[in-house]
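Deliverable D2.4 — example input (C-alpha cells):
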C-alpha cells in the first residue's frame, strides 16, 4: 500500500512537470527557440499566488485564472519585445537573450521579494484525502489532476482545432504558411502566450505545496529541460509521458534510496535514454 501511495504521488507530481514543460516544448516546436527563463516564469506565478493569498486571503480559485492571464500576457510581451528580434540572429543570440532574461527576472525578484523562503498554508485547499485506501495530500491531488487535464487539453487544441492547425503549419514551414494566408507573428505570439499560461497555472499549483523563493526557477528550468529532452522536443504527448515517468522515478528513488539520491537516478535514466534514443521518447529523428 505504501508503494502504491508513492507511485500515485509521483504521477501527480509528474503531471505538474508535464504541464509547465509543455510550454517549453511548444515554443521550441514552433520557433526552435530555447527559453532558459521558463522556470522563472513559473517562479513569478508562485509569487503571484502567495501575494493573492497574503493580501486578499484568496486561494487557487482566484490565483489560477489570474496566474494564467498574467503569465500569458507576459509571455506574449516577451515574444514581441525580445524574441521576435533575436530570432533573426544566430542561435547563440537567442540563447543569450533568454538566459539574460532569466537573470533579469531572478535578480529583480531578489530585489522585490528578498531571498527569504515563503510558503502558502498547507491547509489552503484541505489537508489529506483518503482515495481507494491511499492517503494523499489534497494540494498534490488538485495540482496533478488540473495539470493532467490541461496538458491533454493543450494537445487536443493543437491537433483537433483550426487554430492548432495554423500554429502547426507555422511550425512546419513558416514560408509556406505565409503563402496560404497564415501570419506567423500572431501564431508565434500565441505560442508564447500559451506557454506563459501553462507556466502560470503550474506555478500556482506548485506553490500550494512547495517553497517559494527567487531561486526556485533554476531547479524548475532544469526539470523542464529534462522532461522536454526525454519526451522529445516539440512533442506535447512526449512531455506528458516524460513528466509522469520522471515524477514516478523521483518518488521511488526518494522512497528506496533517500531524497538525496533522487536527482542522481533521474539524470542517470535521462542520459541512458538519450544514449539509446537521442531524439527522445516521442521525438522524430
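Example output (designed residues):
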Amino acid at each position: 500500500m505504501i508503494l502504491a501511495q508513492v507511485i500515485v504521488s509521483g504521477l501527480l507530481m509528474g503531471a505538474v512537470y508535464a504541464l509547465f514543460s509543455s510550454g517549453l516544448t511548444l515554443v521550441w516546436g514552433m520557433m526552435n527557440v530555447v527559453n532558459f527563463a521558463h522556470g522563472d516564469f513559473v517562479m513569478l506565478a508562485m509569487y503571484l499566488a502567495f501575494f493573492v493569498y497574503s493580501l486578499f486571503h484568496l486561494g487557487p480559485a482566484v490565483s489560477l485564472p489570474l496566474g494564467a492571464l498574467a503569465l500569458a500576457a507576459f509571455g506574449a510581451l516577451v515574444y514581441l519585445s525580445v524574441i521576435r528580434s533575436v530570432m533573426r540572429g544566430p542561435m547563440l543570440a537567442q540563447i543569450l537573450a533568454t538566459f539574460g532574461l532569466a537573470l533579469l527576472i531572478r535578480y529583480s525578484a531578489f530585489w522585490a521579494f528578498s531571498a527569504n523562503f515563503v510558503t502558502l498554508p498547507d491547509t489552503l485547499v484541505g489537508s489529506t484525502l483518503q482515495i481507494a485506501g491511499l492517503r494523499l495530500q489534497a494540494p498534490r491531488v488538485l495540482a496533478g489532476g488540473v495539470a493532467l487535464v490541461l496538458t491533454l487539453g493543450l494537445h487536443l487544441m493543437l491537433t483537433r482545432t483550426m487554430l492548432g492547425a495554423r500554429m502547426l503549419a507555422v511550425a512546419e514551414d513558416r514560408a509556406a504558411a505565409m503563402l496560404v494566408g497564415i501570419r506567423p507573428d500572431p501564431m508565434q505570439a500565441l505560442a508564447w502566450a500559451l506557454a506563459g499560461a501553462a507556466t502560470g497555472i503550474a506555478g500556482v499549483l506548485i506553490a500550494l505545496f512547495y517553497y517559494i523563493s527567487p531561486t526556485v526557477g533554476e531547479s524548475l528550468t532544469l526539470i523542464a529541460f529534462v522532461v522536454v529532452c526525454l519526451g522529445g522536443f516539440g512533442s506535447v504527448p512526449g512531455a506528458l509521458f516524460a513528466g509522469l515517468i520522471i515524477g514516478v522515478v523521483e518518488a521511488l528513488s526518494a522512497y528506496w534510496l533517500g531524497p538525496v539520491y533522487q536527482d542522481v537516478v533521474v539524470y542517470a535514466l535521462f542520459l541512458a535514454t538519450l544514449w539509446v534514443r537521442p531524439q527522445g521518447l516521442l521525438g522524430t529523428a
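DSSP finds eleven helices and two strands in the chain.
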